[in-house]
Specification:
The chain has six helices and eleven strands. It is an alpha+beta fold and about 300 residues long. It binds zinc ion. Zinc ion binds next to loops.
Length: about 300
Amino acid sequence: MKKQISLIVLFTCLLLSLQVIGKSGNQKSIKNLLYAETLTVVRFILPEGHPYKNIGLFSGINNKILLKFGDSVTVKDESLHGSITWYHCSLDNFSFYLPDVFVVKEPESIRYDENGNIQIGEEVVNMWTALPIHYKPDDLIRVGAKYLAESSKNRAIFLREKAASQFMLLIDAAEKDGINIRIVSAYRDPGYQSYLYEDAIKRKGFFQSTVAKPGHSEHHLGTTCDLTSDEISTGLTSDFEYTRAFQWLKDNIHYYGIYLSYPKYKTDITGYEYEPWHFRYWGNDRWESDRWFYRSFIRR
Ligand SMILES: [Zn+2]
């Protein structure tokens, strides 16, 4: 146990010292040094307290190394076995393997505005490209209970300011047409996403396509909502497709810069199963320039 703690302390010190040197202006040379010896840097994404002792080559090292959610791991090599990519990692003097389901690749370059946010509509996040695991928009605001589904009324639900106003406008407009639409969930931090992800792979296996890896979820953006209606009582199911609310959304979301992320029959493009309840705000500019593409996309 003592040895384990001292290893973790040593690793943390190493990371901190790299950061300090980076901030003092030598970041480039440190990066070059790092990449000269390694291929890439990935982050461990499972929640704490779940060491997975029986996963192939990963077993046997858990007594020496304890990885926590968000730890970065240096990758020396990677290889494909069956459908799983294994990363050959090193930490201190230890060398071990991690399967790709346990890690997320840090994106190489991201453009932030002066507040540290990624501009809405410019964010690339999907099954193949992640957001930085520590990214958090600084303009998240709490959505009023009036706009929330019954099951979410006691929870704090957040969206980025602009997305919140568009979703609220949308819900108000639907209300005027006699249609009930409510928000079930919105912003999700990657730490929480890691619990959902772990739960999904436990239930459905490594190749499940229902829950995104932490860093890969559109809910991390703060511009995305799961919607429901009082027409159904079963929460987030494909039955939502048969509600008047869904029909109304199909006809109207383009006025609000919002679109359905995972349409029917598009799993080969999106990587995710059909989710008629999952909507993302892209900004009206995007709709203006690509509106014909998105209109046909959602209607199929
Ligand atoms: Zn969703």
